[in-house]
Prior knowledge:
By secondary structure, the chain is α+β, with helices and mostly antiparallel strands. The chain is 31% helix and 29% strand. The model has no long low-confidence stretch (mean pLDDT 93).
Amino acid sequence: MSLVHSIALDETLEVDRVIDHIQGIEGGPTVVFFGGVHGNETAGVFAVKEMFQEIRSQKKPVNGEIYAVSGNLGALQSRQRFQKEDLNRIWFPERIEHIVKNKEANHNEEEELNHLYLLLENILDTGNPPFYFLDLHTTSSDTSPFMVLNDSLLNRKYASNYPLPIILGIEEYLKGALLSYINELGYVSLGFESGQHDDEKAVQNSIDFIRYSLALTQSVNVSEKEYKQLKKTILKSSTVPNKFYEIYHQHDIGPKNDFKMFPGFINFQKIPKGVGLAVVDGVELKTTRKRQIFMPLYQKQGNEGFYFIRPIPKILLWLSKKLRGLKVDHILVKLPGVQWESDKKDTLMVDQKVARFFAKSFLHLLGYRARRFDRTHLIAKNRERASKSSEYAKTEWFRK
């Protein structure tokens, strides 16, 4: 149990790991909302609490099950992003094995992971498919609401029902995220960024997102008119075109770097060439060409200073869908220097001598994101093989 305070609302809540759980009519989906995976991001916690109270007070029928889960209870209590290590950067299978199976939790965040993992395992064991995992976040800079997700066709198809900007490719830069781990299990999983940490609008945007998500997944039945109104509310919350964007650059902050972002930058802002972005170890960092900035860091904790993004042309989205459907990657492994990492056939090993002839963008079209480089090979993983698309095939949004 933790006390969670919202600066935006000037309110305090007492929450447990499972903030709330409603077991509804059998046969419906299982929808899980996470809030507070980062302890300084409280909007999602307050939003789920309010929405579940609304469902109970209005006695709305629920199809299937819905969960509200708190992420980092210790960090929420102490009002900081994390205590020892970012909980949203440690979800690696090998590490989970040590923490959960071998009971080798060395600090607070590893204990938090242990509890979350066991809860997740129980939900997947006892819940009814299809499963949806929606993680509620906020940012340190001012922002229009947006979504981030791993680039699988299943995730894309689901996310395209939200009239919001959608960011692909973050898994290539941001390693060990909870949602990446869940997506690699094959389920729909995405993150919703509702606004700045301490902005009251971030709480309301999260509430609107939850309402619309419950309607979209048919967890709560609404009329066609109500559905359109909920969607319109989501659309009006954003000032950024509801396009797909991709991340192509991340500025890493090393453990010994002194990084300070210049004030005033906001998400999706277009920055001209030659503009100073930050001071890194006393040296001013400027844009070398026109850029579009994403998630500039305005808090003490965090290892990612900012990203650069660009819109993805619709023709490339269409092409990638076709190429993945044709399994073009199975042809690539016939080339010298390209092979499967294992019999799962979801990870390519490309010899570095050959890799320089492969544009990263081409691998992206095929659904691959670079997982790591070593001295001899580029290792790239595909999310498509794991996708449990058949579990979603009968849903209305999937059939559209």
